[in-house]
Amino acid sequence: MIEPAVVAAAGVVVGAIVAVAARDRRVVAIGLLVAMVAAPLVASPLPESLSVAARVVGAVLAAYLLWAASHGLHSDSSGSALGLAAESAIAVAAFAIGMSVSMVDPLPGPTVAQAAGLALVALAVVPLVGRDVLRLGVGVVLLVLGSTLFTAAWLGPTPPLAHLAIASLLTGIVGATSVTLGRQPLIEAAAPVEEPTAPATAPGLDPPRPKPSRSRERLKSPSDQPSVWAQEESGMDQAASEAPAIEASPSHTAGRAPASRLQRPPRSAKP
User: Fold this and answer.
1) pLDDT tens by residue, 91-101
2) What secondary structure does DSSP assign to 141-198, as a single string?
């Protein structure tokens, strides 16, 4: 007949593998719920009903916090960097080592508690190394559960007050992870977004024209303008240069009267 501790140990390992390898945050919450509910049952003899009830209530509250934090957000996480098959192989290998090696002789608790604790610690190594908040919280939860299974195997049955403290600790860890996940979209939205600057000379557009200097925009002062006498002298020079060309043309000379006839006699001065 299979003992309840063996079934509970298998449930703890399976729930831990699902929590580590899953990409959906809600599936991660379900895996942690299974692992936290089955962990106090890996004992011989079984703990009291009040102790089990405290652990179950703490596990349900922790899973609900993580589930609520995942609601309305992008439900996918980074998942396991090794994959489901690799995580399962690591857990099975660690469980087999825990069943074959006895660190305390004789063990006050069941051997499957030691094996399940070693499997949880092995599964918590990779999430603790990464930077994902969810995976980091899962790694801490698995590390705490593995430590409680080690104490159950090496020190014997866990006292009822210790079960209450473990339930409070697990709820606090998952609650802190849920709060961090809930604030993460706000932090990303508050981060400044750098807009790409357009190139100086975009294709199909004219390059920006340089602004005229102030020296070109200044109006000329009155002193820089030519005087009236200078304008008259320039006009007389221009007329003198054009006069030979006009006199040389026969059309102008034929129809013109002599210059002496056109001149008016000078007015006599009045006495």
Assistant:
1) 999 999 999 98
2) HHHHHHHHHHHHHHT-SPPHHHHHHHHHHHHHHHHHHHHHHHHHHHHHHHS--PPPPP
